Task: inverse folding
């Protein structure tokens, strides 16, 4: 489930430009619903067995005014009435944005560690340190909160020449609301038809540090 076209932005300057709509018509592709049905009659989370102990998941996060919430332990979309206080979800998706149920985004105490260049296949244990939570926007050039999945350069880069998102080589380890640990690697941002807002990733449980 890989596609070289799937991804998002890289620098704070590009992030700011996206947020302000300076790439009208092109970068707007990252922020605007381009239509298309929701798979499974309303199910926005599609998963398949990776055959190696991992799960491959694709999210229909095309709606710019709707978050899609995923519980990793059950591998299911959940619908929290009050996401900020709910402990039913672990990750939330909206277009290229990914939030975690911790810090400013939720009360679940989730933490995320980013490991650029790490081997997904060889990782068996969560790291003992380096975890982050979603933070308020700092004094940077973009207007978005400092989500954990945007730390260390973000999970994607944005190609200014082709106006496409590309996934970075980063393995994330997330500590869930239930204190489980999962490794996660983003694999795409576009669906098979080339429509943005379909982040995809492979993930699997790992042992605690």
Result:
């Amino acid at each position: 489930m890989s596609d070289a076209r799937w991804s998002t932005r890289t620098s704070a300057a590009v992030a700011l430009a996206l947020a302000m709509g300076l790439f009208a018509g092109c970068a707007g592709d990252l922020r605007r619903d381009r239509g298309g049905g929701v798979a499974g009659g309303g199910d926005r989370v599609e998963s398949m067995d990776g055959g190696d102990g991992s799960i491959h998941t694709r999210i229909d996060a095309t709606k710019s005014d709707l978050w899609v919430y995923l519980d990793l332990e059950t591998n299911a979309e959940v619908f929290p009435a009050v996401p900020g206080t709910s402990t039913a979800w672990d990750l939330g998706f909206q277009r290229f944005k990914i939030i975690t149920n911790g810090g400013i985004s939720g009360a679940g105490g989730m933490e995320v560690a980013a490991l650029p260049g790490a081997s997904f296949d060889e990782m068996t244990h969560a790291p003992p340190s380096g975890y982050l939570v979603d933070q308020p926007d700092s004094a940077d050039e973009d207007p978005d909160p400092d989500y954990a999945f945007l730390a260390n350069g973000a999970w994607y880069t944005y190609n200014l020449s082709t106006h496409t998102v590309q996934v970075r080589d980063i393995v994330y380890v997330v500590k869930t609301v239930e204190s489980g640990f999962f490794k996660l690697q983003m694999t795409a941002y576009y669906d098979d038809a080339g429509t943005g807002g379909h982040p995809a990733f492979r993930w699997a449980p790992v042992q605690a540090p």
Summary: Confidence is low (pLDDT under 50) at residues 1-42. The longest strand covers residues 181-188. The first helix runs from residue 12 to 20. The radius of gyration is 16 Å.
